[in-house]
Amino acid sequence: MVNYQATVLDRTFAALADPTRRALLARLDEENGISVSELARPFPVSLPAIMKHLDVLSDAGLIVRSKTGRTVTCQLKAEPMEQAMNWLAHYERYWTQQLDRLAAFLEEDPWPASPASPSSDASRPRRKKSTKPGRSRKK
Known about the structure:
Layout: H1 6-16, H2 19-30, E1 34-35, H3 36-40, H4 47-59, E2 63-68, E3 71-76, H5 79-108
Antiparallel strand pairs: 1-3, 2-3
């Protein structure tokens, strides 16, 4: 496996695990550098709850907060997500190779028909051979 700093990835994935935090990041992607109160406005939770979410995002390095006077603004910082994407890409390559090998294996030779299969000869009703040419045997 590719060497990654485990604590950075752990914090990134833990921060991204929560839908509210993902929504906050999406909002910052649309309007980077907005105030905390403006960022919190559309969410149905209290401002202290949003502040806790922002603490988690900040600890993970996904946002940067700055204070000017009484206004705190947030900016998106995508570097930790890039590391997470690189980690995921490693496994995407692995699974793509495995699925390509499976597809190649399945396409190599057709499987023989099973006896229970309607297309196999074994499941077709057999005709009785006639004793005389051109005539069928009667029961």
